[in-house]
């Protein structure tokens, strides 16, 4: 049983079949598809007479309109806006502090969850009856929007505030892969014992967080998920707006699970260029013959790695990217080893990204990709069984 979910809609969407090849190849299926936010008739009644908070960013769209603007247009009493990493408008660098203030367009209080505190305060929650989460995720554990969702869910549970998730697609939803996080390596870039690619939507993951008691007072949380209509996990979905400054297109999103690990190395993955997370390069030696130079890019990469240096490396803008590919890490690690250079310049951060120290140690030991993958299969299968009760889509 899926607790506190719109079960009727869930059952209906399980019966809906869409062509998983391409949305452009199936106009009828595309017309039938709707995100949770695009079904206001299902959630506006839940907001009537309530003091509403929203955890949103630039991806929280209904067509061309922002969710906040639509809620206000319908007379919803929006009390406050919570902003995750990258800010409400999605214009902050990765890791940059997001400040609280007033939203210039609506005049509403703008409360940062990526600054001094990552969890709403008791005072902030006491102003609310219900809080909405509507943010486009990319399905990779170290992408921090789901960590912000976790803290808001926990605060809601502790203070008797209802939680409403408006579900959106997972652009990496066809894949469930990678090491399952060991809680000894828990951090803001990995809070739950799930694999790197978990294959779930934020709505499904929220149900699992509550159902598995991964937050304090989980049993007290009144959680409602508005599922998507006519969605399947493997369905291609072109994001209408980039989910963060350095994931500008589908290729970057597809490569992100594989290239995110390079953030713990001295290399560049293109921050400060027009093609972040689509290249790999280094200034002292390289693989491939592609040349590029990271530069300061306010709003995306103010001081990117290897800034203003001429780099040599790989251009991955046209490779076929899918799921988790360890070959990039293994090849570059071998090159650094051959040059007696340190590859994992931040081993502790690598372990947080991986959710374990095993991956780093196996790479340093020279294990093959096949051997490394074999090591996480048992836990991966256990996770797939564990998540089954929380899945809303085929």
Describe this structure in words.
This protein has 394 residues and is an alpha/beta fold. 29% of the residues lie in helices and 14% in strands. It has 13 helices and 14 strands. The protein has helices at residues 7-15, 27-32, 40-47, 67-73, 122-125, 145-159, 202-211, 250-259, 327-338, 347-354, 358-364, 369-374, 377-387, and strands spanning 51-56, 61-62, 65-66, 77-83, 101-102, 109-112, 130-134, 162-166, 177-180, 195-197, 223-226, 279-282, 290-292, 311-315. It has a seven-stranded mixed β-sheet, sandwiched between helices. A three-stranded antiparallel β-sheet has the order 12-14-13, with no helix packed on it. It has a two-stranded antiparallel sheet with strand order 2-3. A hairpin with a 6-residue loop joins β5 (101-102) and β6. The longest helix is centred in the middle third of the chain and has 15 residues, at 145-159. The relative contact order is 0.14. Mean pLDDT is 90; it is low at 1-29 and 90-98.
Put the structure in a nutshell.
With 394 residues, the protein is of the alpha/beta class. It has 13 helices and 14 strands.
């Amino acid at each position: 049983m899926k607790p506190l979910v719109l079960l009727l809609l869930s059952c209906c969407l399980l019966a809906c079949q869409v062509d998983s090849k391409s949305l452009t190849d199936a106009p009828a299926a595309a017309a039938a598809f709707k995100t949770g936010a695009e079904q206001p008739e299902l959630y506006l009644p839940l907001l009537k007479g309530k003091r509403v908070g929203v955890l949103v960013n630039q991806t929280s769209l209904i067509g061309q309109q922002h969710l906040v603007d639509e809620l206000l247009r319908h007379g919803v009493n929006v009390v406050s806006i919570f902003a995750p990493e990258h800010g409400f408008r999605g214009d902050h660098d990765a890791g940059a502090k997001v400040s609280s203030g007033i939203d210039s367009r609506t005049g509403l209080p703008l409360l940062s969850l990526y600054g001094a505190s990552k969890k709403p305060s008791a005072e902030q929650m006491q102003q609310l009856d219900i809080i909405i989460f509507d943010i486009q995720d990319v399905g990779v554990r170290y992408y921090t929007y789901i960590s912000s969702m976790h803290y808001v869910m926990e605060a809601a549970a502790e203070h008797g505030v209802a939680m409403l998730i408006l579900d959106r697609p997972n652009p990496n939803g066809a894949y469930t892969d990678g090491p399952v996080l060991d809680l000894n390596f828990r951090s803001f870039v990995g809070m739950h014992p799930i694999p790197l690619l978990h294959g779930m939507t934020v709505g499904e993951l929220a149900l699992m967080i509550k159902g598995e008691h991964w937050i304090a007072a989980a049993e007290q949380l009144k959680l409602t998920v508005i599922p998507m209509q006519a969605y399947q996990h493997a369905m291609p979905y072109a994001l209408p707006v980039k989910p963060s400054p350095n994931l500008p297109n589908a290729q970057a999103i597809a490569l992100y699970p594989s290239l995110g690990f390079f953030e713990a190395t001295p290399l560049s993955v293109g921050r400060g260029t027009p093609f972040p997370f689509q290249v790999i390069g280094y200034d002292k030696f390289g693989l491939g013959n592609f040349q590029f130079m990271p530069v300061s890019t306010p709003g995306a990469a103010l001081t990117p790695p290897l800034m203003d240096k001429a780099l040599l490396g790989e251009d991955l803008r046209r490779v076929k990217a899918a799921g988790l590919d360890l070959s990039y890490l293994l090849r570059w690690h071998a090159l650094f080893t051959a040059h007696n250079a340190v590859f994992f310049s931040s081993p502790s951060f690598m372990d947080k990204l991986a959710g374990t120290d095993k991956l780093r140690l196996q790479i340093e030991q020279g294990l093959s990709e096949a051997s490394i993958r074999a090591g996480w299969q048992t836990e991966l299968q256990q996770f797939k069984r564990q998540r089954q009760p929380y899945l809303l889509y085929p």
